[in-house]
Amino acid sequence: MTVRPSGRALALATVLAVACTGSAHARQGPLLDRSYTAAVVAFQTEGEMGPARRLVASWTHQQFETAVARSRRESPQLSRPASLLHLEIALALVETEPAEALWQIRLGGQLLESLARTTPGPQDDFVARWSVVASSVFQARTDLPRARAALAFGLARRPRDTMVRQHAGTIEDLASLIAENDDTGLADRKGTAARRLAYNRMAIAEREYREALAISPRNTSARIRLGRLLHRRERFNDAREEFERARAAELTTGDRYLLLLFLSSTHEALGDVASARTALRDAVGLAGDRQGAWLALAQLEERSGYPDRARGVIAQGLSRGRADVDEWWDYRHGGFDNEGLEWLRDAVRSSR
Amino acid sequence: MAARRRQVLTLVAVSWISIAAALAQPDQVFRASVETVVLDVAVSRGGQPVRGLGAQHFTIVDNGTPRPAQAVLHDSVPLSLVLCFDTSSSLGEDGLQRLREAADRLLESLRPDDQVGLVTFTEAVDVRVVPTTRHEDVRAALRTLSPQGPTAWRDALFVAAQLVEPTRSTRSVVLLLSDGADTSSWMSASQIEDAIGRAGVVIHGIELDTRPAQRMTTNNLAPPVASSAAPTLRRAVQASGGRVWSAASDGELRRLFLEVLQELRDRYLVSYIPPAPVTAGWHKVGVRLNDARGDVLARPGYWVAPEK
């Protein structure tokens, strides 16, 4: 997160914050309100986080709750920037204080309560988008209990939003991946429990993905993930069917890359190594700076009895410049919804 | 048949060569004159290596058929060693510095004709140095590392194993250091075991336990739920006939690296002629000692690829 200093907002908020912390709580209401509002406005107008940081450093939970309650009553027009501010605070805190980060997310949810009662268009749903980004703050750290808790607001207020349902699916999908991680083949009780947990999570994830697709059949990202989930549940023909449907749609480069990667392993599972190879060659042709496809192709060649080809693919693929992102990595260990965060920031900026 | 032989050469720990001829001409590509399988075997008693064994001390059971050892080589065989190091964020800067120091000590202990390479991994895999006798290249590459990101040791191990094709008269070894559960590999747990079984490379694994001091440097990192990599890592190492070593802290790496190196030197390269005809598929192998006592550690079999 980039924070740019802003002298005027910083000075104002500092004065207000210092004044605030020195007062008796009973007399603090207006001061709390003013310093909180100043922090929100500084953030909204100049992207300035300094005042908010000082509040976080000096305020108690009770002071925050008081200020948020007053802001909800008296400044409903600030609900979007204020909720985004709390999300940004959570993002800054999550590494060192994840419990505090979740608390900030809950405050943000409170600020969005009145907005959540309105009915926006599907392309303009700040509440749904905010919920998904808030949850991904924790998903990116594979902190799935908190990711679920952060999404609870969105699931309660936007149960018919395809993004929210898809995200609920990705959390359970990831939980199943973690449960089976490195435990496959274990014969002991721990291994059995892990497999059972993975199976249960996969069932919930499938239900959520299907719900997302029922709401919006054009949600190809959900379809690709559903296909992969069906593959993992060894329903390979069903998986291939979903992939073929997704393939016919218009896709982002990242989604198409992920689709080709997943499709190749389903082809291979169905015994069609030639199609698997073609899909992976298409993937490296499409996104040659992503390492996942090169590694997958090398591994396929080695498994198919062509270790020389595998070495060639490794030499070619791993010597290239590599992108910092790989949709496979995000899928595999949980990614942060950067695109969603930018959407929220734009929405707040445009509402100045 | 020649094509078939080439596939076997590159796929498994089966060298279709005469070991003696290979040692006499270490820079040449080998041509088969005798169909020979080579196994890298450790023999120990009470935790100490058993030295001084010869061909007469080994019998190899290949798919149930006992075969006498034809030749045994010991300490003199040069290494083709790939260091495969986890540089994920949980290692931290201090841990990485201790890793560099330990690796430096290991490099100092190598012989001039030993080859060494370096693969590092986080969620991505980087081939830093392909195996070379210029050991200083690895030392220089180690200086450029920084800890970041999650762990993809299965993909990294696959890549490292492909770098040490067992076609020459060397001990082909990967030394894998990792400290966490794999959260990013494309390769599954069962696939890495199979791939290692086919590769013919001995894997030694060092599990580094950094859990008490989990460190994070960015928002998008390894999970707090990271569990021991032991089950899959151990199975992959067993499939290669290697050993897993545990380090309770990165401070132990220096000692462990030297212990691993000594183990590599103490192992025997045992060659034998497999029962004819050599069929495609998995060959289960066991090693027995004759007139000697000790615990034997070797790969449990080798793979012969079907003819294409």
Structural summary, described in words:
The complex is a heterodimer of chains A (352) and B (308). Chain A has 352 residues and is mainly alpha-helical. Chain A has a domain at 217-287 and 291-324: Tetratricopeptide repeat domain (Serine Threonine Protein Phosphatase 5, Tetratricopeptide repeat, Alpha Horseshoe), CATH 1.25.40.10. Chain A has 19 helices and no strands. In chain A, helix 10 packs parallel to helix 12. Chain A starts with 6 loop residues before the first helix and ends with a helix. Chain B is of the alpha/beta class and 308 residues long. Chain B has two domains: 2-74 and 267-304, no CATH class; 79-264, von Willebrand factor, type A domain (Rossmann fold). In chain B, the strands form two sheets. In chain B, strands 1, 2, 3, 4, 11, 12, 13 and 14 form an eight-stranded antiparallel beta sheet that branches. Chain B has a six-stranded mixed beta sheet with strand order 7-6-5-8-9-10, with helices on both faces. The model of chain B is unreliable at 1-34 and 212-229 (pLDDT under 50). Chains A and B meet through helix 16, helix 17 and helix 18 of A and helix 1, strand 7, helix 5, helix 6 and helix 7 of B.
The percentage helix of chain A is over 70%
CATH topology of the domain at 217-287 and 291-324 in chain A: Serine Threonine Protein Phosphatase 5, Tetratricopeptide repeat
Gyration radius over CA of chain B: 19 Å
Major sheet details of chain A:
none
Topology of helices and strands:
The complex is a heterodimer of chains A (about 350) and B (about 300).
Chain A: H1 7-21, H2 29-46, H3 50-58, H4 61-74, H5 79-93, H6 98-111, H7 113-116, H8 126-139, H9 144-157, H10 162-180, H11 189-215, H12 220-232, H13 236-247, H14 253-269, H15 273-286, H16 291-303, H17 307-318, H18 327-333, H19 338-350
Helix pairs in contact in A: 1-2, 1-3, 2-3, 2-4, 5-6, 5-8, 6-9, 8-9, 8-10, 8-19, 9-10, 10-11, 10-12, 11-12, 12-13, 12-14, 13-14, 14-15, 15-16, 16-17
Chain B: H1 2-11, H2 19-24, E1 37-45, E2 48-49, E3 58-62, E4 65-73, E5 79-86, H3 92-108, E6 115-121, E7 125-132, H4 135-143, H5 153-163, E8 171-178, H6 189-199, E9 202-208, H7 230-240, E10 244-247, H8 253-266, E11 268-272, E12 281-289, E13 295-297, E14 301-304
Parallel strand pairs in B: 5-6, 5-8, 8-9, 9-10
Antiparallel strand pairs in B: 1-2, 1-11, 1-13, 3-4, 3-12, 4-11, 6-7, 12-14
